[in-house]
Design goal:
Elements lengths: L2 H10 L8 H7 L7 H25 L1 H4 L5 H13 L11 H7 L2 H14 L5 H10 L17 E5 L6 H6 L6 E3 L2 H5 L7 E4 L6 E4 L9 H4 L3 E3 L6 H6 L7 E4 L6 H12 L9 E5 L2 H13 L6 E5 L16 E6 L14 E5 L15 H10 L9 E5 L14 H19 L7 E6 L8 H8 L2 H6 L2 E2 L7 H4 L20 H10 L1 E3 L10 E7 L16 H5 L7 H32 L1
Parallel strand pairs: 2-3, 6-7, 6-9, 7-8, 9-12
Antiparallel strand pairs: 1-4, 1-5, 3-4, 10-11, 12-15, 13-15, 14-15
The protein binds S-adenosylmethionine (SAM).
S-adenosylmethionine (SAM) binds next to helix 13 and strand 7.
Protein name: S-adenosyl-L-methionine-dependent methyltransferase
Family: Belongs to the class I-like SAM-binding methyltransferase superfamily. RsmB/NOP family.
Keywords: Methyltransferase, RNA-binding, S-adenosyl-L-methionine, Transferase
Length: 579
């Protein structure tokens, strides 16, 4: 099979293989072309598709070349007009002949678009395409806010100071994130994040993927928002072991390991127990843990469902903190720079004759596209594994959110059953109330939360960098019905404790949500708590607290926080004396 047929097959993904574009290419064992060449062709053709789609449509290429699918036409036109070596096929190959006979017209249309866009040279045009600033017909739209390249320094095997004096030696420190956002990829400039320790921002187009620091796992590409959960969990040596209940690909797992290894004094044998249900994603997790040199701190439980882990098992008897970042709708990550949109030429734009051609021929093209519908004029490609969050539930949005939030609540209330656990963070990369604050309110109202004394970690008790973060939770009065009996005071308190990030803002983050739960040492650990089988009870649509629940929850929460606050004051005094 030629390079172009293989690229089209990867893109149409008839076998519905999950994961990023890169992992789909590298996983295939039946390719004749080199995976690197395939990836380069697809990503370059995607970048140029905003131009090439129009060029192909204006030349009515698909009308004249009936055997070319929109995907093949795009890939071939890209190489014909933009690849140094032209179309990678023998001179008499059917595909080469089919595209080459249109070269003059395609080149002329391409040049017209370039000149109309005001680009005097091909070089200038290329720069605009790479920077993503060529947006024909949308000049009046507000300029898209760019997304920085966030780099977390992996303190398991290096320090921020070491990386600044080696990998980033000669880079100037910017005083504002905006300076980094507007800089070109070649600018040697960075911004030190004020909220998350050991996190740096670089210009969006910077390519650090070939730097020795990246290859050695000294630096990890991780969105700022995705660093919130491990930091908010604020693991200390007293917490003992930590569970990451939904770990792959492992950004937060390795962040937990970095925080543990960064603590003053020895890590006292603390282990991060990382659950991952999916076997393929377990492989990615294992690789990431190894690359981050975190394998002495992290124990990967691959192909293991956190929901069936028994809280009372001896294995988890020292687990004091749990991080939960379950599967979600992923609505917060759309539009990230790691997602690329490929625009395909519309086949009906070929010629007027196309709609009158024989049905047989039309069906042939449908078949060739292997399930990418002829009407499907865009393809969204996930370029980066670290950005790929799974969205396993299909169907209409409302149904998906109901199913996902039921699962999320179940996993959160399961975590609340671990007898020694004192801290939990719950996060999603979703922007929907139902998956975020909705789950938090329902979890707080659950039987297990009440019996075990779980409360929300209020803003004033959060780690410094997140206490200062201004975007907080929201309340959706329609979500639980107007008759929700929750007191205004408690709604406000819980929303203020929840943390949100919004995509497309000057903060440079993806859309994200995180909240933390705590419980105090004095709570009744041995109280009879309903076991995992009663989860259905927690998943019932929540109708709001009753007046009595409300008062009880408020009192308990206030007591828990007072005790927590006394304990942390005591701890701070102890620490201060120790220094
Ligand atoms: C949103 S992703 C986690 C991303 C990860 N925390 C990170 O920062 O790299 C959710 C992951 O949880 C896994 N998962 C979902 N349900 C699970 C369960 N019940 N037990 C263990 N893993 C689960 C999914 O397979 C998926 O890999």
């Amino acid at each position: 099979m030629s390079l172009y047929y293989e690229a089209a097959a990867v893109l149409t993904n008839a076998e519905k293989v999950g994961g990023s574009l890169k992992s789909r290419i590298y996983k295939r064992t039946d390719l004749k072309s080199s995976p690197a060449q395939l990836f380069a062709l697809i990503s370059e053709a995607s970048k140029w598709s905003i131009v090439l789609k129009d060029v192909i449509e204006r030349c009515r290429l698909l009308g004249e070349e009936r055997k070319l699918t929109p995907l093949l036409a795009l890939l071939l036109t890209h190489d014909l007009l933009l690849s140094k070596n032209g179309v990678a096929a023998p001179a008499n190959h059917f595909l080469k002949l089919a595209i080459s006979r249109h070269k003059a017209r395609l080149s002329a249309e391409f040049t017209k678009v370039r000149i109309k866009g005001g680009y005097v040279t091909l070089e200038a045009f290329k720069e605009a395409i790479v920077a993503g600033v060529f947006n024909p017909g949308q000049e009046d739209l507000p300029k898209k806010v760019r997304h920085p390249r966030w780099v977390r320094i992996n303190t398991v095997n290096t320090t921020c100071a070491e990386q600044l004096s080696t990998t980033f030696a000669g880079y100037a420190r910017a005083s504002k994130l905006a300076a980094v956002l507007s800089a070109s990829g070649s600018a040697r400039i960075y911004f030190q994040d004020p909220n998350i320790p050991n996190l740096l921002a670089f210009p969006p187009d910077i390519d650090l993927s070939t730097s020795p620091a990246y290859i050695k796992g000294n630096i990890i590409f991780q969105d700022k928002a995705s660093c919130f959960p491990a930091y908010l969990l604020n693991v200390t040596p007293e917490d003992g072991d930590v569970i990451d209940g939904c770990a792959a690909p492992g950004n937060k797992t390795t962040h937990l390991a970095a925080i543990i290894s960064d603590q003053d004094g020895p890590a006292r044998g603390q282990t991060v127990i990382a659950f991952e249900r999916d076997k393929v994603r377990t492989g990615t997790l294992q690789k990431m843990v190894k690359l981050a040199s975190a394998d002495r701190i992290v124990l990967v439980k691959g192909g293991a469902d956190f929901l069936v882990a028994s809280p009372d098992s001896e294995e988890f008897s020292k687990v004091g903190a749990i991080l939960l970042d379950p599967s979600c709708s992923g609505s917060g990550i759309v539009g990230r720079d790691d997602t690329m949109r490929m625009r395909l030429p519309d086949p009906s734009s070929g010629t007027k004759t196309i709609s009158h051609t024989s049905k047989g021929k039309k069906r042939k093209r449908d078949k060739d596209t292997n399930g990418v519908s002829e009407r499907n004029t865009t393809l969204d490609l996930d370029l980066d594994d670290s950005a790929a969050e799974e969205t396993p539930v299909k169907g209409k949005l409302a149904e998906r959110l109901t199913a996902l939030s039921a699962f999320q609540l179940r996993i959160l209330t399961h975590a609340m059953r671990f007898p020694k656990a004192r801290k939990i963070t719950y996060s999603t990369c979703s922007v929907h109330f139902k998956e975020n604050e909705g789950v938090v309110f329902r979890a707080l109202a659950s039987q297990v939360a009440k019996e075990r004394g779980w409360a929300i970690l209020k803003r004033e008790h959060q780690v410094d960098g997140l206490k200062r973060w201004e975007r907080r939770g929201i309340w959706d009065s329609t979500a639980f019905g107007e008759d929700s009996l929750l007191a205004q005071e408690q709604k406000a308190e819980v929303c203020e404790a929840c943390i949100r990030c919004e995509k497309g803002t000057a903060d440079g983050t993806m859309g994200f949500f995180v909240a933390a739960f705590v419980r105090d040492d004095g709570s009744d650990q041995t109280a009879p708590v309903s076991n995992g089988n009663s989860d259905g009870e927690d998943e019932d649509e929540w109708k709001g607290f009753s007046d009595e629940d409300d008062r009880a929850a408020n009192t308990k929460s206030r007591e828990a926080m007072r005790r927590g606050s006394r304990r942390s004051k005591k701890k701070r005094r102890k620490n201060a004396q120790g220094k």
